[in-house]
Q: What sequence folds into this?
């Protein structure tokens, strides 16, 4: 018995060690190096002398526009997440609870389809749709002759549209999983106790789907506040975000320490937001 | 265990064979350059490989900082590198380059005398880089949508182009162009506040902040902007491959000029061949075909420039001494300056979004 237990723990170690070793090597080490860099005066490459400093973190708090940009990126994250929830939840609901069989498979395929193309290609195809005299503009002109020109390209809405398209599948997939797992008998019980469809939804279905919704929100909100490619291509003059600013520190100024400091400030903000809101979101399950 | 040992032996054997194969094969020339910047044209590589019985392998950098990092971290790997006049002094100072023997490069005698001994490419009397191509950063406009000619850099601030300007999203260039527009020395601007104000005034002008030549062409073709910051060497490619009616302007206030030179990294494995490569790159044979078939910046080799067609941009505009006199060659900037310029530009871009 004891031997069996030991074999068991050895096999757990054997099976999980490669993954954790890989994560340690690819995530933890570079991240710690970056954290260290963020406290250095400059990158210690090519015989440069570097000393420890807090200057990069101080710069962030001294210059208002870096703080305002952080807020701008958070707002972008909120807008995109809200839009994904608004569009994704009904879609996931219909997929999980209304449609069965082959239809579900093919509709599911449509949801995952965007993942099969390169994200850069997707963003550039949006430029064709959104630009002045583009696909969307022509469609509107055709439907409503005489309507003003629709030029969404190079604006904040263009960024929100492109990102919502890119991240919507996450919301649908996570919500779908938790909606599908709801026991049919619970709904029947609610109905037999006299609950109307809307009450069944708000008191039973929605609370039970919350774990999926929350994972969707986290999966979308966290990466969106750090994006730099989509805002740059779609945003034009409105495309400056904290993500683009961080990237430029690395590429244009060789200022890795400040770029790293900005990244860790962003990480801290994310962790703070999650610790503040996570209990609140989870708590609603108990209602 | 026996099988494992067998595999080990097989692996070692395979490695020995592989290494032996590489060593015994013809010499290999490792080149570090921008992607798509002439030297990696398939026909050029083929000509050189056949003529000298070597293999040519390219590795790329996407900005000069990356080029320096590669030289620092891979000593003795590359045979050739193409730094510009801003970064060559750093490479020389850090001991990353080998001296160059101009007598091994016959085409060197045709290089423009003013470019043969550029201070940035020298250390004392010793030559470290051979001028290859040069060009200007300024702006270009669409001649069908804009009634020209335009001759002042203030055109970028002209209200008639409100919302029709495409600006290069680059901090150094932004500061330098604003310095030219406010009458300051772009290599050492004194009044950064004035530059900040001038750049903020672009808020209602700029529609696109572009980052690559390809973006410039596609957005210009899609009618997203009419006038934009651009590079002289890219104009002919816009005309040739995108059919864009584009005219490049060297404004009366001046334009920023850069110069790329071939250099040989420290401890390069094939130094003699590397000199031959530089000679080939300078030759009219290579340059004329590059400019007419693909589109290139101006060559430092005057003999090569003279063999271009009469109407080519490089010959028509950049060979005019009066135009060349207006160019301001970019000087190296300190790291503090680079950090300060980026901060300034990021603040300006943030105000653009308000």
A:
């Amino acid at each position: 018995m004891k031997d069996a237990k030991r074999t068991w723990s050895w096999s757990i170690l054997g099976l999980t060690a490669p993954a954790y070793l890989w994560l340690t090597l690819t995530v933890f080490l570079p991240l710690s190096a970056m954290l260290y860099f963020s406290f250095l005066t400059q990158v210690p490459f090519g015989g440069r002398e570097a000393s420890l400093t807090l200057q990069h973190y101080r710069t962030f708090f001294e210059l208002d526009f870096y703080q305002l940009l952080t807020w701008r990126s958070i707002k972008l994250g909120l807008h995109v997440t809200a839009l994904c929830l608004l569009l994704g939840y009904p879609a996931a609901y219909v997929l999980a609870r209304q449609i069965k069989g082959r239809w579900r498979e093919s509709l599911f395929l449509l949801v995952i389809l965007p993942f099969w193309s390169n994200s850069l290609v997707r963003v550039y195809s949006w430029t064709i749709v959104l630009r002045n005299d583009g696909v969307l503009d022509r469609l509107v002109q055709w439907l409503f002759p005489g309507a003003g020109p629709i030029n969404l390209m190079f604006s904040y809405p263009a960024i929100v549209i492109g990102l919502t398209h890119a991240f919507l599948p996450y919301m649908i997939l996570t919500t779908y999983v938790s909606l599908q797992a709801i026991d049919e008998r619970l709904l029947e019980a609610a109905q037999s106790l006299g609950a109307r469809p809307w009450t069944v939804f708000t008191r039973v279905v929605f609370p039970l789907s919350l774990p999926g919704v929350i994972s969707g929100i986290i999966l979308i909100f966290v990466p969106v506040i750090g994006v730099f490619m989509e805002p740059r291509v779609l945003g034009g003059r409105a495309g400056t975000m904290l993500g683009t600013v961080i990237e430029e520190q690395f590429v244009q100024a060789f200022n890795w320490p400040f770029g790293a400091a900005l990244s860790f400030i962003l990480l801290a903000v994310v962790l703070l937001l999650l610790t503040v809101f996570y209990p609140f979101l989870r708590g609603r399950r108990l209602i | 265990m026996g099988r494992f040992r067998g595999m080990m032996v097989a692996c070692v054997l395979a490695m020995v064979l592989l290494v032996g194969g590489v060593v015994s094969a013809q010499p290999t020339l490792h080149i570090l350059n921008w992607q798509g910047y002439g030297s990696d044209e398939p026909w050029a590589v083929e000509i050189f490989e056949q003529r000298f019985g070597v293999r040519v392998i390219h590795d790329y950098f996407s900005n000069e900082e990356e080029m320096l990092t590669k030289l620092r971290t891979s000593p003795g790997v590359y045979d050739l590198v193409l730094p510009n006049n801003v970064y060559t002094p750093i490479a020389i100072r850090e001991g990353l380059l080998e001296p160059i023997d101009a007598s091994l490069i016959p085409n060197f005698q045709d290089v423009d005398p003013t470019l043969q001994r550029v201070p940035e490419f020298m250390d004392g009397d010793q030559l470290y880089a051979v001028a290859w191509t040069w060009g200007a950063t300024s702006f270009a406009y669409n001649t069908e949508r804009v009634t020209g000619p335009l001759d002042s850099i203030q055109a970028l601030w002209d209200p008639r182009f409100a919302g029709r300007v495409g600006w290069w999203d680059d901090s150094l260039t932004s500061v330098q162009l604003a310095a030219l527009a406010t009458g300051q020395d772009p290599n050492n601007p004194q009044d950064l506040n004035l530059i900040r104000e001038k750049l903020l005034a672009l808020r209602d002008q700029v529609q696109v902040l572009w980052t690559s030549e390809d973006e410039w062409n596609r957005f210009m073709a899609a009618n997203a902007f009419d006038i934009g910051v651009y590079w002289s060497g890219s104009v002919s490619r816009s005309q040739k491959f995108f059919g864009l009616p584009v005219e490049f302007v060297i404004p009366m206030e001046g334009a920023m000029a850069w110069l790329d030179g071939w250099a040989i990294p420290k401890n390069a494995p094939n130094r003699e061949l590397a000199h031959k490569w530089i000679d080939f790159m300078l030759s009219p044979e290579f340059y004329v075909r590059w400019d007419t078939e693909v589109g290139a910046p101006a060559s430092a080799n005057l003999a090569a420039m003279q063999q271009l067609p009469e109407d080519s941009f490089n010959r028509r505009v950049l060979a005019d001494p009066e135009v060349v006199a207006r160019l301001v060659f970019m000087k190296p900037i300190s790291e503090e300056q680079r950090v300060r310029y980026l901060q300034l530009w990021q603040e300006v871009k943030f105000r653009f979004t308000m």
Summary: Chain A has one domain: 63-286. The mean pLDDT of chain A is 88. The radius of gyration of chain A is 24 Å.
